[in-house]
Amino acid sequence: MIFDMLGLLTGITKEDAAINKIMEILTMLFAPQSLIYLSIRDKKNQAIRTDPPSLSVSDDRVERLRTFPDGSSWVNSENGFSLAIRHAGQTLGVVALDDLLFPEHKHRYLNLALAIAPVLALSISNVRNLEEKEQLILELQDALAKVKTLSGLLPICASCKKIRDDQGYWNRIESYIGKHADVEFSHGICPECARKLYPEIFEKKGAEESAIRSEE
User: Which whole number is the average pLDDT over 187-196?
Assistant: First the structure.
């Protein structure tokens, strides 16, 4: 029966679902009156789950669970235990079971928990790796879509530089690129165009600079 329950973890692809299944398995095996699961990533708290959901957990206890060492220990009441879920030298989570229904079997329960802990840790590690791969795929697909939006040949007017879109309409180049890429335009005037458009300003500026050089 234990192997059947653990086998259910292999088909899970999301961490939330894996944690829910782990809590369900621990409840079925050990029948605690209270169960806490603290998810940890890079030594930082990710989420905390409790059964019953209304169970209150102090900040001090959360911190003790976050810094829980490898292995296990009895809880303060000694009618339950805390257990680190570790894989590849990292703590992925910590569970705390309290008020076991049959505390006289607690030593047997703890040995069983230690035996299945590597399987629980592997399931969490696998779903995290899968989620990271899925996120990477989404990011790559998004990047590829952005590249494709401006790939290929763009029909552009040799005179006004407008671009013809797929519907045959001519668009200003900044309007076209703004629709197909994550960019915005700001406008200015380059020195060459400024001389053409405002020659009187440059002539006046040139005369003033010549006067200054002659005085020197």
Answer: 81
